[in-house]
Amino acid sequence: CMHRNDNLYLEQFAIDICNHFMTTFCQVAYVKAYVQEVPWQRLHEDGVPHIHSFICVPDGIRFCEAEQCRNGPLMVFAGIKDLKLMKTTQSGFEGFYKNEHTTLPERHDRILCGELFCKWSYGECKDFDFNCIWKKIRECILEAFAGPPDCGEYSPSYQKTVNCIQMFVLSRVSQVSSFLLMMFYFSNSEC
Hints:
By secondary structure, the protein is an alpha+beta fold. It has a single domain (10-96, 105-185), classed as Urate Oxidase. It has helices spanning 10-24, 130-146, 158-172, and strands at 30-37, 40-45, 48-56, 61-69, 75-87, 112-122, 176-186. Helix 2 packs antiparallel against helix 3 (158-172). The two termini are 40 Å apart.
């Protein structure tokens, strides 16, 4: 895999680690590198950047993994974790299977709040711009979750929302060969 410009992205750094161990040490049979980027931003006071202080702004943590067996293909995965999302309307809980053990009533309008974890794999690694792909996937997740800014988009269930996000990403980002999404639901008191 190659990156398209001189910026070193997480994925390329993980790939470089794998390549280093595979080419430097003949006794190494398997390498797995995990890299994550914590979203730190410089503190500002009255518009002036602080000389040495930062704040963690948790709008999702970017991570990646690269792994390789000797004489095997290089596998690259990327993802987002700890991304908290909330819809205050346009979300329901209806149309689900019911039996004698069902206690929850259907709801047409409710708050949907959760924390998202997603991980995807790239197919055959070519000259990918990993940063551009990561940003596009994040935009797809937010668009599929929220819908248009002026009216939103109704979803009858959490499960439908998760499925729509997965399908939207796979339809828009051809470099992704598989996509796993988990969204941990929070009750209203946890939001």
